[in-house]
Amino acid sequence: MSIDDQTGCIILGGGGHASVIIDALRAGGTTECYGILDRNCSLWGKEVLGVPVLGGDELLPQLMRRGATQFVVGLGGVGDNRPRRRLFQLGLQHGLKPLTVCHPAAILSPFATLGDGSVVLPAAVVNAGAVLGANVIVNTGAIVEHDCVVGDHAHIATGSRLCSAARVGIGAHIGAGATVRQSIAIGEGAIVGAGAAVVKDVDPWTVVAGVPARRLEGRQVDMRNSSG
């Protein structure tokens, strides 16, 4: 099917996260994908769940001339979320509208707020009063309790839990299976290790791990290597 025959979005990034985006879009039954763009030329001409990887970011203007109007970031993250932020900004700079994706198997309170381009995946829970910023991932089985605030570009990874009124800074990463106690603040760009139990505030751009979570001495996010 040609682009001109479809209505839908462009996926920016062709990794494994792109496949769950495509699955969520199909499960919702409301949006189809024109295709995927990725810098990695080894992916060009291949498919992700039947959606073609058309080429690199330089194709965006061409696709817009052919009718593309929406985008979603298909790149996941295991710590540093600045590459996802770069892709989100790229879509905005080209005048595309970020598409917010919520899998029908997720539980989303009508009293929660989702920012543009955010993604909520199967079995995730976002409760009343929670506020998600733009381009946030709430991954499979994660819980964002009532009155939490999650900053732009953050990733709440698989099976992690934010207890009530927790605050997660821009671009922070909450690792798989981690728990953040109620009213705790996680700073911008911070990384919480998988399985950690966070009972104290976490400074920006630091890495914590363990039960209870402690700062890993000598470990911090390298801000010099920003892709955002």
> What is Rg?
17 Å
- Using the alpha-carbon principal axes, give the shape: globular
Structural class: alpha/beta
Give the N-terminus to C-terminus distance in angstroms.
Answer: 34 Å
Q: Which stretches of 5+ consecutive residues score pLDDT under 50?
A: 1-6, 224-228
CATH level-four homologous superfamily name of the largest domain: Hexapeptide repeat proteins
**How many strand units?**
24
Q: Please, what is the average pLDDT?
A: 91
Q: What string gives the helices and strands in order?
A: EHEEEHEHEEEEEEEEEEEEEEEEEEE
Helix content: 10-25%
Q: Strands of the biggest beta sheet: in what spatial order?
A: 7-9-12-15-18-21-23-24
The CATH architecture designation of the largest domain is 3 Solenoid
Instruction: Could you tell me the CATH topology label of the largest domain.
Output: UDP N-Acetylglucosamine Acyltransferase, domain 1
Summed up, the helix count is 3
**Main sheet specs:** 8 strands, mixed
Please give the CATH class of the largest domain: Mainly Beta
